[in-house]
Amino acid sequence: MSSVKRLVYAVIHFLREQSQMDTFTPDEQESLEVAIQCLETVFKITLEDTHLASSQHLIEMFTNSIQKNDMLPVSRSLPEGVVKADQLKDEGNNHMKEENYGAAVDCYTRAIELDPNNAVYYCNRAAAQSKLNNFREAIKDCESAIAIDPKYSKAYGRMG
């Protein structure tokens, strides 16, 4: 629990610094204070718990982490599951062209099981569900796609 408390302490410290800036409206500053109070209450942390402080500010840790991740080499080989999922997506696309929507749903579902973080698979399954008049399922799939990639405009259009 100590690493969790240290993280929360860092978040509280960051939020306190932000709340003292003049960039927020009074309502926003009040919201920051409420957030701080909630975190302090839930994790039983006070300002006196300075032993939880880190030598780096939270924003520095975050920035360093992002920079390290950006410098990692991109892998040229895809994990086997991702490759198979993409094959299933292509198979589902072929079923859609043949108007075999049930088989397309099955392919996209299997692709999602292998790679649940790919918004395209959900959006494609939504198209097949829509063709089967399964509109609630189609909306759920569009919402899942948007949750994964909020900028995926096709999912918004398809949901509409």
UniProtKB/TrEMBL annotation:
PANTHER family: LD24721P (PTHR45831), SMALL GLUTAMINE-RICH TETRATRICOPEPTIDE REPEAT-CONTAINING PROTEIN BETA (PTHR45831:SF1). GO terms for cellular component: membrane; TRC complex. GO terms for biological process: post-translational protein targeting to endoplasmic reticulum membrane. This is SGTB protein. GO terms for molecular function: identical protein binding; molecular adaptor activity. InterPro entries: SGT, SGTA_dimer, TPR-like_helical_dom_sf, TPR_rpt. Pfam families: SGTA_dimer (PF16546), TPR_1 (PF00515). TPR repeats lie at residues 85-118, 119-152. It comes from Drymodes brunneopygia.
